[in-house]
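step: validate -> pass
step: tokenize input -> pass
step: predict -> running
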Amino acid sequence: MRTRLVAWTLLTSALLAVAVWTVLGPPDRPAGSRLPLHDLTASVR
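step: predict -> pass
step: emit ->
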């Protein structure tokens, strides 16, 4: 019973992740919001 619950949860999470990935697309900057600021300061110098 517990194994089926864990398997069902993992399967549902994977399907939800694929659906969100399909709708939103892959993240452009996984490093966070500090990366654009760093690029901006590097391009100014």
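step: describe -> The CA atoms of residues 20 and 26 lie 9 Å apart.
step: cleanup -> pass
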